[in-house]
Amino acid sequence: MPTPAITPQDYVQQKAAASGSSFYYAFLFLPPAKRAAITAFYAFCREIDDVVDEATDTGVAAAKLAWWQAEVAQSFAGKPSHPVMQALMPVVRDFDIGQHHLQAVIDGCQMDLNQTRYLDYPGLARYCHLVAGVVGEVAAKIFGQTQEQTTAYAHTLGQALQLTNIIRDVGEDARRGRIYLPMNEMKQFGVSAQDILSRQYSDRFTALMSFQAQRAHQLYQQALALLNASDRQSQKPGLMMASIYRALLAEIEQDQFQVLHQRISLTPLRKFWLAWKVQALGRW
Fold this sequence. Notes:
This protein has helices at 8-18, 22-27, 32-53, 58-76, 83-92, 99-114, 121-143, 149-168, 170-175, 183-189, 193-197, 203-226, 236-254, 268-281.
């Protein structure tokens, strides 16, 4: 018998599950329609991210991102060809997802091809806005926001999550030739790019990373303060992410920012437990 063709919904489910991301645990508790929508959107983000992360030739990666820009435009014109877009397009109207949201995610990943250093935090914040803030905004729509202020919460939480990723991945990113830590702050703490590329730990590096971690902590607090009580129930998946990532940040701090030679992570069981606590007990 011929192998049955994989459906767009199967494709995005496999893409989301294969990533092993903490986001997957936050989706588990959603009702089916919202879970299908966020899974399709997350699979889109993974596709775009993978273009850059797996790139060995920036020219080829740029061409792939250009293809995705055209695919998004074509999809919103009613002709999706990629399974991710075929899974996503049926839900964009229900959750007010615009073409500009998807193009912004692509723009953020294009920055990774063109820019490997950031002069200061405002420059880095612009990057975080595109690759994480916009993602947070779309996710909040899917989860079910009722208050306009929830968009600001979602952008701030996205920023916090992305900074946590940057802290976790300093060594891994450096091996790809990218350093996201603001250059003026590296200079302020006496840490050079060569120190990071050669995995040189020091008190100066620890102080620099502690400074970054405190900024992330402040953003988590700001995000939670922006979330109106009437939207807390619907936005539980985002709060699950906040709980998981804050636990990860605490783990990195406890390990004295030993991130240059390894990737510190939480076990799947611990991620599930943290997500369940938010879902069942409302604790984050």
